């Protein structure tokens, strides 16, 4: 596929995004963290996807799966999902537990066309998704964000042309913020609340994506 075909797919999905809660928070039992790590060998790019499934209440790790392979799609800004989704879906097939929510180390609606990896993947997973990125993705030239207060739970919204695309969230006192955005089938407020509930004492990154990130680095080292 070419860039125009990628754009057509994103635009067709964009019309179907639902930023309302499709569930009750009382019914959440499991949350999966998703992340990928890349490397190159002999001119070919590879990646490994790791998915860690946690108990939502106790934060106990229930399952950990990974899948690696060649990356067939070149990097094009704004179309990252087309590179990562094939490995993500293969990893999902390995899961014995079907998570209630998927949390991605990346963006959801914080994307020029509201189609970050968390949103794009939701149409294949058919589950609520959340994007929690460690760094800021500028969706429009010159669009910066305002720092929230230094206390845990403080946030500022990322607004472009009158629309809220995501949220800058302080998960611990006096730490770097993370960038939360709704993926699909969930509100930004609920995505924020879930993120805060899944932050441990060890890091300002929520536990599911933090563990998935650690697993990808370990797996990449092993595979290289």
Verbal overview:
The protein is of the alpha+beta class. It has one domain: archaeoglobus fulgidus dsm 4304 superfamily (archaeoglobus fulgidus dsm 4304 fold, 2-Layer Sandwich), CATH 3.30.2170. It contains five helices and eight strands, in the order αβββαβαββββαα. It has an eight-stranded mixed β-sheet, with helices on both faces. The longest helix is centred in the last third of the chain and has 17 residues, at 207-223. The relative contact order is 0.19.
Number of domains: 1
pLDDT average, as an integer?
96
The CATH class name reads: Alpha Beta
Task: Find the count of extended strands (DSSP E, 2+ residues).
Answer: 8
Spans of at least 5 consecutive residues with low confidence: none
Count of runs of 4 or more consecutive helical residues: 5
Strand arrangement, major sheet: 3-2-1-4-5-8-7-6
Summing up helix and strand content along with how strands pair, one would put the structural category as alpha+beta
End-to-end distance: 29 Å
Determine the fraction of residues in helical runs and give it as a percent range. Answer: 25-40%
Q: What fraction strand? A: 25-35%
């Amino acid at each position: 596929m070419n860039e125009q075909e990628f754009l057509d797919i994103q635009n067709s999905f964009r019309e179907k995004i639902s930023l309302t809660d499709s569930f009750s928070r009382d019914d959440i039992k499991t949350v999966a963290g998703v992340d990928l790590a890349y490397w190159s060998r002999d001119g070919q790019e590879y990646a490994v996807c790791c998915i860690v499934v946690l108990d939502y209440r106790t934060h106990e790790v229930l399952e950990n799966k990974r899948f690696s392979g060649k990356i067939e799609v070149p990097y094009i800004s704004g179309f990252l999902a087309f590179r990562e989704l094939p490995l993500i879906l293969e990893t999902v097939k390995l899961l014995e537990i079907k998570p209630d929510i998927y949390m991605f180390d990346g963006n959801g609606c914080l994307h020029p066309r509201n189609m970050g990896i968390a949103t794009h993947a939701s149409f294949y997973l058919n589950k609520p998704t959340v994007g929690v990125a460690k760094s800021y993705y500028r969706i429009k030239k010159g669009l910066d964000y305002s720092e929230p207060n230094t206390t845990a739970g403080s946030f500022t919204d990322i607004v472009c042309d009158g629309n809220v695309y995501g949220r800058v969230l302080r998960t611990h006192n006096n730490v770097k913020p993370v960038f939360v955005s709704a993926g699909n089938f969930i509100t930004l407020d609920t995505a924020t609340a879930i993120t805060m509930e899944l932050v441990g004492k060890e890091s300002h990154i929520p536990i599911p994506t933090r563990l998935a990130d650690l697993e990808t680095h370990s797996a990449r080292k092993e595979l290289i």
